[in-house]
Amino acid sequence: MKAIDRRLREEFAKLRAEINEDKSRMVDLKKGESFTFLGFEYRRVLSLQRKWRPHYAPKLKKRTALFERLREIFRQHVSWPVETVIAKINPILRGWVNYFRVGHSSICFGVVKRWVEEKVRRHLMRARGRKGFGWMRWSSKWLYDRLGLFNNYQLRRWSDAKVAPAR
Q1: Burial class (CB in 10 A: 0-12, 13-18, 19+), 56
Q2: Average of pLDDT values for 128-151?
Q3: Using an 8 Å Cβ cutoff, are 42 and 34 in contact?
Q4: Could you tell me if 47 and 89 are in contact, meaning their C-beta atoms sit under 8 angstroms apart?
């Protein structure tokens, strides 16, 4: 570990980059420790094949920040048509999902997708002066196909990457 630390410091010195000692620390994932970096939480988990593997997913704090940002748009545009509201939230959802679509984000994406659906349905019901969420009134397919709500919550795996053939 000391040799790795020394080597990293040598390489950073060549690049004229400094390590912030207050923010930097050594983490032993084998002891159950975890760390966060660029909005992801990294830890070690036991896979279904009984092998240890790294697990990284969006931090709860980042998901909460997304919800707060979307909630503010819904609050500011209560009386606006749902198409306009969807046009405002789609770029935010697309950017957030594209950033976090690596790693193990599928559970988080399911929570986000359901939350957004619920908010859009609630917006539609309020516009009609009704209570509830309208789960029976509008299908999810209708929300995505007819209204154009963002629906690309797919993870990007390394095996899916398109690579140009070697020349």
Answers
A1: buried
A2: 88
A3: yes
A4: no
The DSSP secondary-structure symbol of 118 reads: H
Please give the structure tokens belonging to residue 7. Answer: 């080597």
Whether the pLDDT of residue 151 is over 60: the answer is: yes
- Predicted confidence band of residue 161 (pLDDT cuts 50, 70, 90): low
Range 34-38, long-range pairs (CB < 8 A, 24+ positions) = none
Per the rule left: phi > 0, alpha: psi between -120 and 50, beta: everything else, 10 is alpha
Q: What is the pLDDT of residues 83-125, one digit of tens each?
A: 999 999 999 999 999 999 888 888 999 999 999 999 999 999 9
Contact criterion met (CB below 8 Å) for 138 and 121: yes
Distance from C-alpha of 57 to C-alpha of 34, rounded to nearest angstrom = 12
Which two structure tokens, joined as six digits, stand for 81? Answer: 């048509």
